[in-house]
Amino acid sequence: MSQSCLHERSSKEEIEKGLRLQPKFDENGLIPCITTDVHTNEVLMFAFMNKDALENTIKTGKVTYFSRSRGKLWVKGESSGQVQRLRELRTDCDQDVILCKADIGENGASCHNGYRSCFYRKLDPQDQTLVFDGGEPLFDPEEVYGKG
Ligand SMILES: [Zn+2]
52 CA distance to ligand 1 centroid (A)? Predict the structure, then answer.
């Protein structure tokens, strides 16, 4: 018998000050997840989890998302090798966001475009254009995922 580590939402007091994980899934059954590098706290990516993805993340220690485009669970790194090994999982005050701190496998990239972080561009406040400052891509996406 496997019992879920996730609990039903209860009172505000329980959710904000209690000891149990009571995540709030939206009307589509999803909760946002931010993933950072456990060593540097660099923000690597943002994606959604559903209940299965969150349970799988906790159970297997591999960060698992729900792919909205593919409509299925997405164990990060399954095809690329850049597995995100969960080192710490947090939720915020009202438990409507998940924060995963992870060790990144292989070449350490998290973005499907080959960059370490998905946030590889910043807005230049003067020009209001995007500037690349996330370093060089760590892999060639075409090689890993194929063309198209
Ligand atoms: Zn990305």
Answer: 22
